[in-house]
Amino acid sequence: MRFGIRQPGLLARRLLLALEEVKRALQDQTDAVTEATKIASAKQAVPQLVRAEVSLPESVEIRKSAIDARSERVYQRRTLLLSLLTFIAIVIYAGLVYLQWKEMIGATGAVQDAVHEARLNRQQSQKSLNAAIDQFHLDQRAWVGPTNIALREMQAPNPITAVATITNYGKTPAFKLRARYFLHASDTPIDVRQYAKNPIEQMAVQEQRTTNTFFPNAHMDLVPSTGSTDALGIQSVGNGRKLLYFFGWVWYSDVFQMPHETRFCAQWYVQGKGFAPCSEDYDYSD
């Protein structure tokens, strides 16, 4: 009987202990859920906006508005005055710049006129100087040309011979003088210019050079001749039936190292017993 009474009491105590453990577990779970809920609420909460407002008495506020309005009007007046003064200064400055610009234009035009006038004067002076130099060269240079052409006595069967005296009648020597010349006998008048370009005496054209300086008033003889001539040929030249032409060219340099040429043609005339120019427009000297 005693064993049967003690067994139910032991069971009751064990049941109470189990219920207390279940209660504690439920309490711990409830506390954990509550703590998690608080943390989530704190993260999602929006901070409240704090506004600070100053409240002034109505009389003070009206006085402050009047002062602000007066200060604004004074500021606007000063700004307008400053803008006006700035505009006036800009206008004055622009006028001064314009006057200075006009003055610069006038000065530039005067300078340009002066430069142009100086250029014209320089060109005129250069022309005058060049003319003076050219005139000096013309006056002082060598001038070489024939001063006399004569026909020597003709006698068959000797060649017909003429002599042209070449003279330097300038004031300074001539250098590198070279001369070419020939005689041409023709039964009819010839075109002097055309014949001089291609004479039939091409192979018989004579040439003479001077190795020394050809001084002023110096003379040099050019002595061309034809081939052997019979008595009839000489007679024809003597009575004018056969025409006789003397062609000559002279090249030289003056003391100013300028090259020159003298070209001449002379024809024998029976009436005057002498040589005269073949053509008025053929003889040349530079």
Supply the number of helical segments. 4
Helix content: 40-55%
What is the mean pLDDT?
84
Strand and helix order? HHEEEHEEEHEEEE
Q: In angstroms, what is the radius of gyration?
A: 67 Å
Number of strands: 10
CATH homolog superfamily of the largest domain: Immunoglobulins
Q: Unreliable stretches, pLDDT < 50, 5 or more residues?
A: 1-5
Global morphology:
elongated
Q: What fraction strand?
A: 15-25%
For the termini, the CA-CA separation is 181 Å
What is the domain tally?
A: 2
**Alpha-beta content class:** alpha+beta
Q: Summarize the main sheet.
A: 6 strands, antiparallel
CATH class of the largest domain: Mainly Beta
Q: Can you describe what's shown?
A:
Mean pLDDT is 84; it is low at 1-5. The strands form two sheets. Strands 3, 4, 7, 8, 9 and 10 form a six-stranded antiparallel beta sheet that branches. Strands 1, 2, 5 and 6 form a four-stranded antiparallel beta sheet that branches. The N and C termini lie far apart (181 Å). The protein is α+β, with helices and mostly antiparallel strands. The chain folds into two domains: 60-140; 144-285, Immunoglobulins (Immunoglobulin-like, Sandwich), CATH 2.60.40. The protein contains four helices and ten strands, in the order H-H-E-E-E-H-E-E-E-H-E-E-E-E.
